[in-house]
TrEMBL record:
It is found in: Cell outer membrane. It comes from Cupriavidus basilensis. It is a multi-pass membrane protein. InterPro entries: Gram-neg_bact_OMP, Gram_neg_porin_domain, Porin_dom_sf. The lineage of its organism: Bacteria, Pseudomonadati, Pseudomonadota, Betaproteobacteria, Burkholderiales. It comes from the Bacteria. This is Outer membrane protein (Porin). One of its GO terms (molecular function) is porin activity. Residues 1-20 form the signal peptide. Keywords: Cell outer membrane, Ion transport, Membrane, Porin, Signal, Transmembrane, Transmembrane beta strand, Transport. Homotrimer.
Length: 382
């Protein structure tokens, strides 16, 4: 049993999978972990806690409702309302939104595809699900690529179609800014090709902030199944205009979430800080999972990002491993270890207390260059 089993059951794949029946289903997952993390402040102190950044290592905790209605003649309608929650405190996740993970209504057919309206995953996040060893994890140590891709669009209109081995998603998110048609809007196209043991994906995504500055994403990835093993590789190129500010997009940060808020005078600097000049990131992931027995799955991965801007050059790398033991089809226990390190101009990222830092100007980060995380967790699916 791989980690994909769990996320797939939560309908993170293409929406067409939910069209086989009429009715409403309650579903969800709770992932909670005891966590030990080094270099959690500028003094280098360690921290023992429940969760990392409010998340378990494998899955974001959630509950949701999804439903479908057969309208006859191969036509059906449906909806998804999905809440994100922080299991350590019981608070809402995703900026405190009630249904911050997903909230949309859809109509379509198996033959011609579906149209969906509402808050939906970015096409980049959806395509990464197929070619990431954890199906896009949850904790900051394994999911920081979403600082570049974002995870969800508000005000989104999407078309999803399946044509034999080829699936595609075209999506447009309205900026809803009077007099500025492009401000805070997003446009994207994702494609997946699956044949036998191979899955290949590609994606293009462009998002604009309140000043119509753009962030562009180009993504390619591959998964290959070989016996008990699955091998994964993906590449993301991110190209941002000078001053692109993901915090200037209202509730959903330029219609993209999980692109952490830019540094301000009252806010710590982040990996996703605003840069005064144009910024380029090249992000690589390679990994594998191996089914030792039907109950035991081992996963390992290395992630690396290279950031370049005017007068700025820095890198971040993460290596992690997970041993997962399934007690049943719904409950598993896991041990996860992650080691993060930075160098170049990203040095001092972990546990930093620097404020008002903008990437290529102002104060340098004053934290540590590496961080080790150990998480002992339990996940339950319902």
């Amino acid at each position: 049993m791989t980690n994909k089993h769990w996320l797939g059951a939560l309908a993170l794949s293409l929406p067409a999978a939910a069209m086989a029946q009429s009715g409403v289903t309650l579903y969800g997952v709770i992932d909670t972990a005891l966590t030990y993390q080094t270099h959690s402040d500028p003094n280098g102190s360690a921290l023992a806690s429940l969760q990392q950044g409010g998340e378990g290592f494998l899955s974001g905790s959630r509950f949701g409702l999804r439903g479908s209605e057969d309208l006859g003649g191969d036509l059906s309608a449906g909806f998804v309302l999905e809440n994100g929650l922080l299991a350590d405190t019981g608070k809402l996740d995703q900026q405190g939104q009630l249904f911050g993970r997903q909230a949309y209504v859809k109509i379509g057919s198996k033959r011609y595809g579906e149209v969906a309206l509402g808050r939906q995953y970015t096409t980049a996040n959806t395509m990464l699900y197929y070619v990431d060893p954890l199906g896009v994890g949850a904790a900051p140590s394994n999911a920081w690529m979403v600082f570049l891709t974002g995870q969800r669009y508000d005000n989104a209109i999407s078309y999803t179609g399946n044509y034999g081995p080829l699936a595609l998603i075209a999506e447009y998110a309205l900026g809803e800014t009077a007099g500025k048609g492009s401000a805070m809007s997003s446009v994207s196209l994702g494609m997946k090709y699956a044949s036998g043991p191979l899955v290949a994906v590609g994606d293009f995504q462009q998002t604009r902030d309140s000043m119509s500055r753009a962030a562009r994403i180009y993504l390619a990835g591959l998964k290959a199944s070989v016996g008990r093993a699955s091998l994964f590789a993906n590449y993301i190129h991110s190209d941002r205009d000078a001053g692109f500010d993901s915090s200037k997009g209202g509730t959903d940060t330029a219609t993209i979430t999980s692109m952490s808020t830019a540094a301000t005078a009252t806010n710590r600097a982040a990996f996703n800080s605003v840069f005064g000049g144009s910024r380029r990131d090249d992000f690589f992931t390679v990994g594998a999972n191996y089914t030792v027995t039907p109950a035991v799955t081992l996963t390992a991965s290395v992630m690396h990002d290279r950031t370049r801007a005017d007068a700025f050059s820095g890198n971040r790398t993460t290596a992690y491993g997970v041993a997962d033991y399934a007690l049943s089809k719904r409950t598993d226990l896991y041990l996860a270890l992650a080691y993060d390190w930075v160098h170049g101009d990203w040095s001092g990222l972990f546990g930093n207390a620097t404020t008002n830092w903008t990437g290529d100007s102002g104060k340098k980060l004053d934290g540590r260059n590496n961080q080790t995380t150990v998480m002992l967790g339990m996940r339950h699916l319902f």
